[in-house]
Design goal:
The protein is of the alpha/beta class and 195 residues long. It has one domain: Rossmann fold (3-Layer(aba) Sandwich), CATH 3.40.50.1110. It is 47% helix and 14% strand. It is built from seven helices and seven strands, in the order E-H-E-H-E-H-H-E-H-E-H-E-E-H. Helix 5 links the parallel strand 4 and strand 5. Helix 1 crosses helix 7, helix 2 runs parallel beside helix 4 and helix 4 packs parallel to helix 5. The longest helix is centred in the middle third of the chain and has 25 residues. The two termini are 14 Å apart.
Length: 195
C-alpha cells in the first residue's frame, strides 16, 4: 500500500519538531511499517499551489492520497480577525468564494488519480490570547464548511483536525503540529485507511 501526503505544514512539519522527535510522515511510516509513504506537502503552501505544484508529483500508483490544505489560505485572511465590521463580512464572503474555487480545483485534480482520497479540515491553532482564539475558530469554520461540503459532494472521508489537536501540547507553536500532534494525526490517517 502506498500513501501520499499533500498540502502544507500539517504534514511538512519537520522544521517545527525537535531533531530527535518524529514529524507526521515519520509517525505514519512507523505506524504503517512496510508500506510506502511519500511526503509531497510543502510548508507554507496555499491550496492553489498544492493543485499546481503537488498534484503533478503524486505517484499514479498511490493507493491513498491524504490532503491537508486551507490553513495558509485562512492565514492570508487573518487581518479580518482584527476588525469584524460589515466590510469585513463582505471580505470573508469573498475569501470563502475564492477558497471554494481553489479547493474544488484541488479535489477535481485528485479525482484523476486511481487512489482513495482523504481530506483534513483546518485546525484553529493554539493562540495564547482568548479573544484571538475565538475569532480564529470562527474564521476557520468558514474554510472548514467549504472543505466538508466539497468532500461530502464527492463522498470523501474527512479527518477533523480540530478533534485531534485538542491540547497545547499538540502544537510546536501556535499554528504548527508538534511531535505529539503529528503522532495523533498519523494514527487518525491509519485508522481511516484501515476502515
Amino acid at each position: 500500500m502506498t500513501v501520499s501526503l499533500i498540502g502544507d505544514s500539517v504534514f511538512d512539519n519537520s522544521v517545527y519538531i525537535a531533531p530527535d522527535e518524529l514529524d507526521t510522515i515519520g509517525h505514519l511510516k512507523q505506524l504503517l511499517r512496510d508500506d510506502d509513504c511519500e511526503l509531497l506537502a510543502v510548508d507554507g503552501s496555499i491550496t492553489s499551489e498544492v493543485t499546481l505544484h503537488q498534484l503533478p508529483r503524486i505517484d499514479r500508483e498511490s493507493d491513498w492520497i491524504v490532503v491537508s490544505s486551507g490553513g495558509n489560505d485562512a492565514l492570508s485572511y487573518s487581518y479580518l480577525l482584527d476588525d469584524l465590521a460589515e466590510s469585513v463580512l463582505d471580505d470573508m464572503f469573498a475569501a470563502k468564494k475564492k477558497f471554494h474555487e481553489d479547493y474544488s480545483n484541488l479535489l477535481s485534480g485528485l479525482m484523476d488519480f486511481d487512489a482513495q482520497v482523504i481530506v483534513c479540515t483546518v485546525y484553529s491553532g493554539a493562540f495564547d490570547e482568548p479573544r484571538y482564539r475565538r475569532k480564529a475558530a470562527a474564521a476557520i469554520s468558514v474554510f472548514n464548511d467549504t472543505i466538508y461540503r466539497l468532500a461530502n459532494r464527492r463522498g470523501l472521508p474527512v479527518i477533523e483536525l480540530r478533534s485531534i489537536f485538542t491540547s497545547v501540547d499538540d502544537y510546536a507553536n501556535p499554528i504548527e503540529p508538534s511531535t505529539i500532534g503529528s503522532e495523533k494525526l498519523a494514527r487518525a490517517i491509519v485508522d481511516q485507511i484501515h476502515k
